[in-house]
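Appendix B, record 7
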Amino acid sequence: MADVQPLPEGADDAADALASRLAEAWHATFGVLPDDDSNFYDLGGESIDAARIATATARALPEVEDLDVHLMTALLNEARLADVVRSGREFIARAANGS
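C-alpha cells (predicted):
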C-alpha cells in the first residue's frame, strides 16, 4: 500500500471532511458507527449500499467532481473503511492538483 502524500493547499478541508461524512453515511446505511477496520461486505453491503454511501458522502463535498463514482468503486473494491478513506483522500489530492 502506498503512503498517503500530503494534500495540496485547499484540499485539506475536503479530505478532512471525507472521513467524517463517510462515517455518517456508513452509519445511516448500516446502523453502526464504523471504525478503521469496518468491512463493507462483513456488514452485508451490496452495490446499492455502496451507491447510497458514496452519493451521500459526495453531496457533502460538491467541490470534488466525480467523488461519488470513485467512492462507490472504492467501497466495492477495497471494502475496509480505512482503505476507502485513504483512496478518497488520494482522489481528492489528484483532483486538487488537476490531474
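Remarks on this record: DSSP finds four helices and no strands in the chain. Confidence is low (pLDDT under 50) at residues 1-8.
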